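I am still getting used to backbone structure tokens and would like to learn alongside you. To get us started, please write out a protein record for me. Start from the sequence, derive the backbone structure tokens from it, and show both lines together. Once you have written the record down, we can walk along the chain together:
***
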Amino acid sequence: MILRAKLGKLKVNLVLRYMGDSQDEHDRYYKWKEKKLGIWWKSYKAVATKYKGKRAFKKENMAPGFMLGFNLIWANLWFDFSYGVTEFRTND
């Protein structure tokens, strides 16, 4: 389950993965075989909305992002916070 919210330039994604949502047997067996319990975080840089065109992928056009996650025994939950990051939309 993925929930998305946007407040101005702030984007928040909430992702919940649990053991029952795995579709194939390979993913269900190998991903959930090891039981984990803990808290983790990760920071990253993404393409910002400051510049367009070729300048968009330069070093000075990077925006910060932060992930905070919880590994529970039967589920994984994480939040993704980013500010001023470019959205690339696809037709899925």
In short: Helices lie at 25-31.
